[in-house]
């Protein structure tokens, strides 16, 4: 019996499988602040203006770079460069580290709702970036885990 696709090495995933690996938590769409001296990255509850705070999905995913050119595209080739700012629960990070997915992951549970039910998503507690001046983002630092 073959392994489920999400247990394969990331480089063996098709583009469709790669996209399906996302757990839909929305944490990657939270703005981060990086200390220039230490390189430490902290997460804020200030969300990208394209994030739907209830569904935790990008409202313009397919054309997001037209609105947010700096949006980072994770791929099997670039994941290693971005793991330092991804939350510990991120499916891409977990699989890159050889760890299994959590039981609440939609691929395991069979439901996109379980990420929200488990309290792992950003559902209902973000602030859109167009409502907070960038100088005030420090006031919204959180522990995303």
TrEMBL record:
Q: Which family does it belong to?
A: Belongs to the UPF0260 family.
Which NCBIfam families does the UniProt record give?
Answer: PRK05170.1-5 (NF003501), PRK05170.2-5 (NF003507)
What's the name of the protein? UPF0260 protein NIG5292_02074
Q: From what organism does this protein derive?
A: Nereida ignava
């Amino acid at each position: 019996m073959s392994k489920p696709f999400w247990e394969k090495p990331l480089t063996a995933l098709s583009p469709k499988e790669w996209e399906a690996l996302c757990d839909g938590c929305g944490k990657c769409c939270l703005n981060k602040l990086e200390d220039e001296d230490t390189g430490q990255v902290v997460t804020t509850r200030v969300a990208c203006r394209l994030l739907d705070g209830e569904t935790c999905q990008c409202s313009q995913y397919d054309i997001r770079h037209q609105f947010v050119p700096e949006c980072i595209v994770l791929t099997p080739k670039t994941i290693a460069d971005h793991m330092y700012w991804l939350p510990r629960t991120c499916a891409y990070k977990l699989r890159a580290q050889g760890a299994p997915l959590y039981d609440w992951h939609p691929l395991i549970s069979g439901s996109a709702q379980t990420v929200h039910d488990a309290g792992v998503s950003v559902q209902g507690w973000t602030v859109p970036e167009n409502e907070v001046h960038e100088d005030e983002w420090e006031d919204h630092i959180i522990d995303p885990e």
